[in-house]
């Protein structure tokens, strides 16, 4: 029933015709990779026997539709091309100052863009994806190695079924496209990571994502983190759950829980905290995105809609980052010192408790206390290392197991 | 050759920063002048003149210029009579929406207690029932008695002799916490510090992990609502709908990460010598924000 409907490609941009007699719900695909389909017209059977939604066609079992579809160049994840002279000069000027190493984007404004240009919502989302690919190209030229984007929030499941299905279908197409151009990804050293509660997604999408993450896991020139089925509160809760799992497994103790350990248990633990967070379309809130990780990041709110984002908007945001760099760095250092102090206090308290227990109330000299503290700290660090290794193994297996199912 | 190029770009970058600072200074000078002229023609002229050079991201400044406070708002003077409070209340009612909890994030060095106290008192007078004050050094926390004194003083100034009737609940980390079930009818002022943010979440995590250690629950039981509930058990801080940030630093600086998921952020350049109109302008901009909540 879910067989893909293949369009025999005519020339690019020219309509091609096909027909298929089986009834059902099928996604519209092009047989040639890199080509995307837009359904232009359907004819040859009663109108009410056919319905079309979100790039899929549905018709009655006895219908023999003629489908005219237009093929156009599919949008890739990687855009090649150099910057213009003016862009190059501006980039070089900016690079003379401190540059963010990790930028996060809340790509807001696709639907408003679609309304503004009188397009379908789905088209707005596709333009949004196109802009993402372009932004990755700019970041490459600006030597920004890591980008995190907010693609789909858990709250977005509340949208109409049509729109959610459309977004899932778009995601399927994009991840399939990603897998098709894996050689190009290897050439550019792009590592794709997907963060979120992936078990909320349809299984076939999970498998596609797992394959994409698995195939690119060893690339290390640039990193793209896509937040899909993600909210920050779920992420933090998941981190707490993982630590509780570690306690249940006997790998760590309850007293080992700290701010640093929680950070290591988040979905984003392989990345440094974002230096810069950009939200487009003029909204001035975080919408449950990376709340823990951006506590000391530079926040830039821009009123441009995401599909209209330009290189100059990005430069503007980076300039804001540079203006705030010193004061944010100071705040970060202060926080880190405070954190280290708290860890030391916590360790001291644990050691004091232990010594009390062992010495049966007899006073302990400061030398012995100091030795005990060092010993305790190194034991704790070892426990934490083993726990994090086990956690990494658990997460890697999740992806590799999903891949195994796919290849069967 | 390469080092010469690098040097040239470095100089150009420094020049760019200087230009930006000059532009900012010019903008804020003009902003002050426009407020005093209050002529629409001057406003329009200034916007047009400065628009090209103000392209370097000062949306907040532009917003302040475009959605400036009403011409009808008369400035509140230091020693106003009891009429001040009723006027604040009517201003509050005329706003499209008022936050239940407003966060005042001071991202500046050396806070000025009288000015912050002013803002707190105005917020409460306008009808906001929960006002929190935060800075990332924990300075307000350390000097919370001084802040309380200033607030009491400003209340008297604004409300006149009747000020003492309008009692306020003042909370900081050290003070005794009432049970979270008791809904206080008095407006609340809360002093927050970085420990109320990530560290509180860590405490809850430790609590949960200890209960797992003692076999009281399994890790599978842990979910978002449980974490949320436990966080509010010890310090019942409602989610702030609005955070007004004072100062040039564009960051939350560790302010309540769990609670700010849907918070609107509005920036004002500084809290020093802040006027009632500035605050009202920020509240009006908040009124214009529309939340879609994912839909």
Automatic annotation (TrEMBL), chain A:
Cell compartment(s), UniProt: Endoplasmic reticulum membrane
GO cellular component, as recorded: dehydrodolichyl diphosphate synthase complex; endoplasmic reticulum membrane
GO molecular function: ditrans,polycis-polyprenyl diphosphate synthase [(2E,6E)-farnesyl diphosphate specific] activity; metal ion binding
Cofactor: Mg(2+)
Membrane-topology descriptor: Peripheral membrane protein
Enzyme nomenclature, EC number: 2.5.1.87
Principal location listed in the UniProt entry: endoplasmic reticulum
InterPro entries associated with the record: UPP_synth-like, UPP_synth-like_CS, UPP_synth-like_sf
Substrates-to-products reaction catalysed: n isopentenyl diphosphate + (2E,6E)-farnesyl diphosphate = a di-trans,poly-cis-polyprenyl diphosphate + n diphosphate
CDD domains per UniProt: Cis_IPPS (cd00475)
Pathway: Protein modification; protein glycosylation; Lipid metabolism
GO BP, one annotated term: polyprenol biosynthetic process
Keywords: Endoplasmic reticulum, Lipid metabolism, Magnesium, Membrane, Metal-binding, Transferase
DNA-binding as UniProt keyword: no
Superkingdom: Eukaryota
Record's subunit section: The active dehydrodolichyl diphosphate synthase complex is a heterotetramer composed of a dimer of heterodimer of DHDDS and NUS1. Interacts with NPC2.
NCBIfam families: uppS (TIGR00055)
Described purpose of this protein according to its UniProt entry: With NUS1, forms the dehydrodolichyl diphosphate synthase (DDS) complex, an essential component of the dolichol monophosphate (Dol-P) biosynthetic machinery. Both subunits contribute to enzymatic activity, i.e. condensation of multiple copies of isopentenyl pyrophosphate (IPP) to farnesyl pyrophosphate (FPP) to produce dehydrodolichyl diphosphate (Dedol-PP), a precursor of dolichol phosphate which is utilized as a sugar carrier in protein glycosylation in the endoplasmic reticulum (ER). Synthesizes long-chain polyprenols, mostly of C95 and C100 chain length.
Family: Belongs to the UPP synthase family.
Descriptive protein name: ditrans,polycis-polyprenyl diphosphate synthase [(2E,6E)-farnesyldiphosphate specific]
Organism expressing this protein natively: Astatotilapia calliptera
Automatic annotation (TrEMBL), chain B:
InterPro entries per the UniProt record, alphabetical: Nus1/NgBR, UPP_synth-like_sf
Pathway: Protein modification; protein glycosylation
Gene3D superfamilies, per database record: Decaprenyl diphosphate synthase-like
Domain of life where this protein originates: Eukaryota
GO terms, molecular function: ditrans,polycis-polyprenyl diphosphate synthase [(2E,6E)-farnesyl diphosphate specific] activity
CC per GO annotation: dehydrodolichyl diphosphate synthase complex; endoplasmic reticulum membrane
Catalyzed reactions per annotation: n isopentenyl diphosphate + (2E,6E)-farnesyl diphosphate = a di-trans,poly-cis-polyprenyl diphosphate + n diphosphate
Cofactor entry: Mg(2+)
tRNA processing is among the record's keywords: no
Cellular compartment(s): Endoplasmic reticulum membrane
Record-listed E.C. numbers: 2.5.1.87
Principal location listed in the UniProt entry: endoplasmic reticulum
Keywords, alphabetical: Endoplasmic reticulum, Magnesium, Membrane, Transferase, Transmembrane, Transmembrane helix
Family under the similarity heading: Belongs to the UPP synthase family.
Protein name: ditrans,polycis-polyprenyl diphosphate synthase [(2E,6E)-farnesyldiphosphate specific]
Species this protein is from: Astatotilapia calliptera (Eastern happy)
Lineage per the UniProt record: Eukaryota, Metazoa, Chordata, Craniata, Vertebrata
Gene that this sequence comes from: NUS1
